[in-house]
């Protein structure tokens, strides 16, 4: 469609991104993030996302731990965790994760443990999905960078 | 179906799939439970059946909600309308009708009163007065005349009976009578004076006496014409009646005029009362109207108060309470007023009755008095006339009997004379003459006459009737006697009877001779006639006595006595017969000499009929008193006039009262209803808002689990599935996606309705935005083979300020809608113009607009000049109803522009009957279950909501089978070009690169060519248009002489215009031309591009390999794609430098600025750091509020601080508060000189800009930010533009 010749990787990457956008996994913020990446910080997106993964996993572990406690009552702490999770998710534009977080937080505000568990499950799922897809994306991008040796700027 | 699908899947899945399957199922269950908890059984059932029906169910659910909202709102609206326009439409007509009726009623009432009074006045007066006055008077006149006529006649008969013609004395004595006839002749000449004379009858008699002196003169005349009087006498009676008949006629005329005047007067009086009454009514009516008006005014005022938009709900409630309280009060007041009015009306009618009745009674009394007096006077007159006669007889006797020797009169003569002149004394039953005979003369007398003086036998005179005088005893010896010597034949039996022997007669005789005047007896039964009667007695003297003679002298001179008996009943009877209306009135005549027991002389038994009038009668005898009593025969009739008038007034009053009462109760009812409606309206609105909120919440809640469903399905699809399974999963996924999009739409709508949607105002590039939208939708359109194009007029500024998201949403909805309803062929064309362009003269329009408007006019001449050549609707019709299109009104700022966006398609069109409800939510043109096109029908309503929210208008025109065009306008502000260059920047160098190039567009359709040109122009390429390859052949050569051709860098050929042979020809011409030119300057051959909507890869590669074309451009264009393509083709080798002007701008602003970022989330820190660092700032990150506090303790060298709000331990608010606190202290110290400026880094006033970073941009939290000392905020996922504009405020001046 873009008529740039047979840059399959580029197309793949775009397709993947488009898919993610289409599914609502990612949103504009991710594009913003990509725009921040330039020569001065060629791996900016990757770095940020790595930090995100790192932090998210910690948070998820905490959340699961909190929810698995027998006399679970610390909804407030969970709320803080969720806020952090939400904040970081929205920063990288992980829309669906963020949405699940919103639901999770609503459940926790209502002290709805079953809801929380469900939401946690969903969150974990979404997170996994996002992680997989982003890994895939970075993988392709690396390949592309290697293959092309040139980097096209992002498009809107 | 999903359920079935699941079962199927379960049977055939590989080992690992149950996990995913379970997840999917679980999500679906979550969804179901959620829905069930919402109580949406419909939706629940629908979902169980299959997801499609589920969707429908949701639609139905929301539709029902919507409908209930609508119905809730509708009556309120309706109510409001009716309340605000009470004086319009059928209502007002009714009002007028009522007014008219009221007026009519009053008129009818007044008319009837008028008629009644007039009629009554006329009839009663005519009845009462005319006979009374006019006829009566005429009769009197006639009678009087007859009497005098009779006199003459009598005199003539006297002459004829007595042979003696020595009538000198006679004539002398009869002078007065003759004079009467003389008077008659006079009267013949001067009727008027005669009438006067008759009126003064009494005086006449007196005058008669005076005339006696003149008699001798006349005597001579008469003696000389002895024979002549006879003739005269005969002629007079003949002449006079005729004359008389004229006289009364004259007189009657006079009478008539008199009565007329009287009527007039009466009429005036009655008219006055009528006028008074009507004035009263008018005043009442006017006051009623006034009060009605006042009421209306007052109500209007209140309505105004009510209609004032509620500032807050509390106030509204208060007002409502007031409303609830006030109407009954007002109603009470009104009712009291009405009651007073009614009482007043009743009092008025009673008064009117009393007044009219009084008048009637008064008039009746007056009438009675008039009639009675008249009768009395007439009676008196008649009596007097008879009396005069008797006196005349007495004189006759004295003259002819006593003064003549021998006597000229004997019994026979007397009897004959009296008999013949009896008609002159119609009231007397008989006259007789008695001679005064002293006892000493008795014998001599008896001898002379040959009979003895007889005595009246008994006191009872009735017995005398059949007595023969011969049988009577001779009178006893007395001093003197009064034997009757002459008598009328009728009473001849009393000859020789001594009158002195009767007690009554004796007294009478004594009194008569003493007074010398006529004397009456008291009434007694008369002889023969058996009627009550009186005897009149005159004395005959031998000499003419002086008027002052003493009684003794009179007694001495008495010779005899003339007596006449009067029959009073017949007298009165006769009199009354002469007068009309005798049947109306009852007359009694009394002798009231003895006041204690009056004697009834005439009249029947007294029946008391109320009114009584007494008139005195003077019969010339001062000792006797007579009275006439008059009564009406009937009791007074009911005063119908008064009753009618007052009843009419009462009825009118009550009617008016009824009308007012009805009006008041209606007003009350309406007010009550209004209050109720108001309450209902508030409730409905509250329900509406609650519904919207509920929808928003529910949609959101549904979305979350749906994401899970979709994610799982996606993952399932990524696993190793066979075709069948993949199909199932795909179907489920698609359904889920549809559901999500539906929910999003519902959410949007709910948000808009609950007023939570706020439009932002950010600068954006409308062209790029449209490109994005179209490229998003191009997939779908390509599938259907529809051509998609966009055109933006070059008068539209590059950057406008508005809400790009919502703008895009509208466009997406409209275009998506168009795509949905367009099949296989045709196009969808989006064009953007300034609203002013459309209004301007056709010359000022750009090409696309002009053609769009003009092909309509000459569409018969040539095939349609639309984008795809398929006829389209007349698009200008879609905005012809816009109101704001033309109004460059007061809010006109040069910054404001109004965009007109039209989306034209060649779809199936909207059926005419559905066009009215196309913007109603959930309404589709075809909402039957068997419809062709799916969808919820919410899209267009959202568009309308959004456009309304923006302050624009939306409209459409559609013809089934041809297509539809939707247009909307929206106000935007012009943006500065520099304020938004981020996206544009990417093409910056490319644009520069293409600047000045020239292109040739070959396209057989003008509009399509214009669209292509529009894209090229955006890149700075000047484009020429040729409509066919053939005409294009001549282009290079025609352009040869100009420098233009040298720049011809590319030729764009539309695929429709492409055909191989001509193309070859064209290429040759181009090549030839180039060869010519290349001799001079080496130049590249223009690149050839083929433009196509849809082209197969094989065809494409074929064309490319044949070196016909350099590349194929797929439509719809994207600027980036174009740039890339051109770059590649032109091979300039220029790579786009990564050069972002925008970033450098921000960089300049932020370069070397030290910025502190406070956030507990590492990712956010990193992102913020990256973002700011890109702008050249030196970023320091800390992860807690406390750390930030430490860092920002003056002196420090940070220029700004970005602070996250939600942090553990110390959140952003608290941290900011503390920082501000510290700064404050330092500032105080510096100000007070406690600390030198140097100590704090030479800064006199410390105030570090602190900007909040927040994910939720809610007003409340923003306010709180400002409260605790923050300077501004940025929404959390950073956006460069926003960041820039926010920071610019702090660093521009610093």
From TrEMBL, chain A:
A Pfam short name: Hpt
Key word Coiled coil present: no
Keywords, sorted A to Z: Acetylation, Cytokinin signaling pathway, Cytoplasm, Nucleus, Two-component regulatory system
A GO molecular-function annotation: protein histidine kinase binding
Subcellular location, record wording: Cytoplasm, Cytosol; Nucleus
InterPro entries assigned: AHP1-5/YPD1, Sig_transdc_His_kin_Hpt_dom
One term under GO cellular component: cytosol
Coiled-coil spans in chain: none
Keyword Nucleus among record annotations: yes
Domain HPt span(s) in chain numbering: 47-127
GO biological process: cytokinin-activated signaling pathway; phosphorelay signal transduction system
PANTHER family for the chain: PHOSPHORELAY INTERMEDIATE PROTEIN YPD1 (PTHR28242), PSEUDO HISTIDINE-CONTAINING PHOSPHOTRANSFER PROTEIN 6 (PTHR28242:SF46)
Role of this protein: Functions as a two-component phosphorelay mediators between cytokinin sensor histidine kinases and response regulators (B-type ARRs). Plays an important role in propagating cytokinin signal transduction.
Domain comment in the entry: Histidine-containing phosphotransfer domain (HPt) contains an active histidine that mediates the phosphotransfer.
Protein name: Histidine-containing phosphotransfer protein
UniProtKB/TrEMBL annotation, chain B:
Residue segments, region Disordered: 308-328
Family annotation (SUPFAM superfamilies): ATPase domain of HSP90 chaperone/DNA topoisomerase II/histidine kinase, CheY-like, Homodimeric domain of signal transducing histidine kinase
Example of a GO cellular component annotation carried by this entry: endoplasmic reticulum membrane
Entry-linked Pfam families: CHASE, HATPase_c, HisKA, Receiver_CRE1, Response_reg
Xref: Gene3D superfamilies: 1.10.287.130, 3.40.50.2300, 6.10.250.1190, CHASE domain, Histidine kinase-like ATPase, C-terminal domain
Coiled-coil residues: none
GO biological process: cellular response to oxygen-containing compound; cellular response to stress; regulation of meristem development; regulation of seed germination; regulation of shoot system development; response to osmotic stress; response to water deprivation
Residues of the Histidine kinase domain: 697-974
Keyword Membrane: yes
Positions of post-translational 4-aspartylphosphate modification: 1204
Protein name: histidine kinase
Source taxonomy: Eukaryota, Viridiplantae, Streptophyta, Embryophyta, Tracheophyta
């Amino acid at each position: 469609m873009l008529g740039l010749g047979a840059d399959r990787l580029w197309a793949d990457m775009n397709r993947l991104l488009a898919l993610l956008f289409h599914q609502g996994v990612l949103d504009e913020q991710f594009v913003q993030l990509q725009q921040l990446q330039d020569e001065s910080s060629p791996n900016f997106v990757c770095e940020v996302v790595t930090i995100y993964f790192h932090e998210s996993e910690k948070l998820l572990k905490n959340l699961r731990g909190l929810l698995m406690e027998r006399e679970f009552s610390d909804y407030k702490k969970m709320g803080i965790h969720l806020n952090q999770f939400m904040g970081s998710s929205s920063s990288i534009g992980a829309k669906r994760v963020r949405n699940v977080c919103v639901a999770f937080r609503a459940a926790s505000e209502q002290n709805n443990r079953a809801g929380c568990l469900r939401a946690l499950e969903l969150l974990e799922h979404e997170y996994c999905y996002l992680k997989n897809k982003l890994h895939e994306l970075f993988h392709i991008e690396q390949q592309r960078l290697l293959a092309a040796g040139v980097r096209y700027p992002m498009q809107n | 179906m999903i359920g079935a699908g699941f079962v199927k899947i379960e049977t055939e899945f590989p080992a690992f799939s149950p996990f995913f399957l379970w997840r999917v199922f679980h999500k679906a269950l979550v969804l179901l439970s959620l829905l069930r908890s919402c109580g949406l059984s419909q939706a629940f059932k629908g979902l169980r059946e299959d997801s499609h029906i589920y969707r429908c169910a949701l639609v139905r659910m929301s539709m029902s909600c919507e409908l209930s909202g609508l119905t809730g709102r509708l009556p309120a609206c309706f109510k409001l309308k009716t309340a605000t326009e009470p004086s319009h439409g059928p209502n007002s007509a009714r009002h007028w009708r009522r007014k008219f009726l009221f007026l009519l009623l009053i008129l009818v009432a007044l008319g009837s009163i008028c008629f009644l009074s007039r009629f009554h006045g006329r009839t009663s007066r005519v009845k009462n007065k005319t006979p009374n006055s006019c006829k009566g008077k005429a009769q009197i006149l006639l009678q009087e005349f007859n009497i005098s006529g009779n006199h003459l006649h009598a005199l003539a008969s006297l002459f004829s009976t007595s042979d003696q013609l020595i009538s000198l004395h006679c004539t002398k004595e009869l002078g007065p009578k003759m004079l009467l006839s003389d008077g008659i002749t006079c009267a013949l000449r001067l009727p008027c004076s005669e009438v006067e004379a008759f009126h003064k009858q009494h005086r006449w008699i007196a005058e008669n006496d005076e005339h006696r002196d003149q008699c001798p003169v006349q005597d001579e005349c008469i003696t000389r014409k002895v024979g002549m009087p006879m003739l005269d006498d005969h002629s007079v009676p003949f002449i006079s009646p005729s004359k008389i008949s004229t006289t009364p006629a004259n007189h009657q005329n006079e009478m008539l005029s008199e009565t007329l005047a009287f009527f007039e007067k009466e009429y005036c009086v009655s008219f006055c009362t009528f006028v008074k009454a009507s004035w009263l009514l008018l005043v009442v009516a006017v006051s009623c109207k006034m009060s009605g008006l006042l009421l209306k005014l007052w109500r209007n005022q209140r309505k105004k108060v009510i209609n004032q938009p509620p500032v807050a709900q509390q106030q509204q409630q208060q007002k409502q309470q007031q409303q609830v309280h006030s109407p009954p009060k007002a109603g009470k007041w009104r009712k009291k007023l009405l009651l007073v009015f009614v009482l007043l009306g009743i009092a008025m009618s009673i008064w009117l009755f009393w007044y009219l009745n009084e008048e009637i009674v008064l008039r009746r009394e007056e009438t009675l008095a008039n009639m009675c007096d008249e009768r009395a006077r007439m009676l008196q007159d008649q009596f007097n006339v008879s009396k005069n006669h008797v006196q005349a007889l007495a004189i006759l006797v004295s003259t002819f009997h006593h003064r003549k020797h021998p006597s000229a009169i004997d019994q026979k003569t007397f009897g004959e004379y009296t008999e013949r002149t009896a008609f002159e004394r119609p009231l007397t039953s008989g006259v007789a003459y008695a001679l005064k005979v002293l006892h000493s003369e008795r014998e001599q007398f008896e001898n002379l006459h040959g009979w003895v003086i007889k005595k009246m036998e008994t006191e009872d005179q009735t017995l005398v009737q059949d007595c023969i005088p011969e049988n009577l005893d001779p009178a006893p010896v007395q001093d003197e006697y009064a034997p009757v010597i002459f008598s009328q034949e009728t009473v001849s039996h009393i000859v020789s009877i001594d009158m002195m022997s009767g007690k009554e007669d004796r007294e009478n005789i004594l009194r008569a001779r003493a007074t010398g005047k006529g004397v009456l007896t008291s009434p007694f039964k008369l002889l023969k006639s058996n009627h009550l009667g009186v005897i009149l007695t005159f004395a005959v003297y031998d000499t003419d006595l002086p008027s002052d003679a003493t009684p003794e002298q009179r007694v001495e001179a008495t010779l005899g006595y003339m007596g006449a008996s009067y029959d009073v009943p017949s007298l009165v009877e006769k009199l009354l017969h002469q007068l009309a209306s005798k049947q109306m009135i009852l007359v009694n005549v009394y002798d009231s000499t003895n006041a204690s027991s009056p004697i009834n002389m005439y009249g029947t038994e007294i029946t008391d009929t109320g009114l009584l009038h007494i008139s005195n009668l003077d019969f010339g005898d001062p000792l006797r008193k007579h009275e006439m009593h008059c009564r009406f025969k009937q009791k007074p009739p009911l005063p119908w006039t008064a009753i009618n008038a007052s009843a009419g007034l009462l009825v009118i009053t009550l009617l008016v009262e009824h009308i007012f009462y009805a009006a008041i109760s209606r007003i009350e009812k309406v007010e009550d209803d209004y209050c109720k409606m108001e309450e209902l309206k508030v409730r409905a609105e509250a329900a509406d808002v609650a519904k919207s909120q509920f929808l928003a919440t529910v949609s959101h809640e549904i979305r979350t689990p749906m994401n899970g469903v979709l994610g799982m399905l996606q993952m399932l699809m990524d696993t190793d599935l066979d075709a069948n399974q993949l199909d199932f999963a795909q179907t489920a996924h698609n359904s889920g996606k549809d559901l999500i999009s539906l929910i999003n739409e519902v959410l949007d709508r709910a948000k808009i309705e609950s007023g939570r949607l706020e439009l932002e105002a950010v600068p954006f590039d409308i062209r790029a935005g449209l490109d994005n939208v179209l490229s998003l939708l191009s997939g779908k359109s390509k599938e259907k083979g529809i051509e998609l194009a966009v055109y933006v007029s070059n008068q539209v500024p590059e950057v406008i300020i508005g809400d790009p998201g919502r703008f895009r949403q509208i466009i997406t909805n409209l275009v998506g809608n168009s795509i949905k309803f367009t099949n296989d062929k045709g196009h969808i064309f989006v064009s953007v113009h300034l609203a002013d362009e459309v209004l301007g003269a056709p010359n000022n329009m750009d090409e696309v607009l002009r053609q769009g408007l003009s092909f309509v006019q000459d569409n018969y001449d040539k095939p349609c000049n639309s984008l795809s050549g398929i006829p389209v609707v007349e698009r200008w019709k879609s905005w012809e109803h816009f109101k704001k299109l033309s109004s460059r009104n007061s809010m006109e700022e040069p910054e404001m522009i109004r965009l007109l966006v039209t989306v034209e398609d060649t779809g199936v069109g909207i059926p005419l009957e559905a066009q009215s409800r196309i913007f109603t939510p959930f309404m589709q043109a075809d909402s039957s279950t068997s419809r062709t096109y799916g969808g919820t029908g919410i899209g267009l309503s959202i568009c309308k909501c959004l456009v309304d929210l923006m302050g624009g208008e939306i409209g459409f025109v559609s013809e089934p089978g041809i297509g539809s065009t939707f247009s909307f306008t929206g106000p935007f502000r012009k943006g500065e070009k520099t304020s938004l260059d981020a996206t544009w920047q990417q093409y910056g160098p490319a644009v520069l690169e293409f600047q000045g190039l020239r292109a040739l567009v070959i396209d057989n359709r003008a509009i399509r060519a214009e669209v292509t040109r529009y894209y090229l122009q955006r890149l700075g390429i000047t484009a020429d248009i040729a409509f066919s390859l053939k005409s294009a052949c001549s282009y290079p050569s025609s352009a040869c002489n100009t420098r233009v051709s040298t720049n011809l860098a590319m030729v764009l050929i539309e695929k429709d215009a492409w055909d191989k042979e001509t193309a070859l020809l064209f290429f040759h011409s181009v090549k030839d031309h180039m060869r010519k030119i290349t001799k001079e300057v080496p130049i590249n051959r223009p690149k050839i591009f083929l433009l196509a909507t849809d082209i197969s890869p094989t065809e494409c590669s074929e064309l490319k390999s044949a070196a016909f074309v350099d590349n194929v451009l797929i439509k719809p264009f994207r600027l980036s794609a174009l740039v890339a393509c051109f770059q590649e083709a032109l091979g300039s080798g220029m790579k786009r430098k990564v050069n972002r002007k925008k970033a450098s701008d921000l960089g300049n602003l932020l370069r070397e600025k030290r910025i502190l970022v406070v956030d507990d989330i590492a990712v956010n820190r990193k992102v913020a750091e990256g973002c700011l660092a890109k702008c050249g700032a030196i970023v320091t990150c800390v992860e807690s509020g406390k750390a930030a506090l430490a860092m920002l303790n003056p002196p420090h060298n940070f220029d700004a601080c970005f602070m996250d709000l939600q942090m553990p331990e110390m959140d952003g608010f608290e941290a900011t508060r503390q920082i501000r606190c510290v700064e404050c202290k330092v500032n105080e110290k510096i100000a007070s000189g406690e600390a030198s400026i140097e100590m704090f880094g030479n800064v006199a006033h410390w105030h570090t800009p602190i900007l909040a970073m927040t994910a939720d941009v809610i007003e409340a939290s923003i306010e709180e930010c400002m409260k605790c000392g923050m300077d501004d905020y940025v929404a959390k996922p950073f956006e460069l533009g926003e960041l820039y504009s926010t920071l610019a405020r702090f660093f521009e001046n610093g």
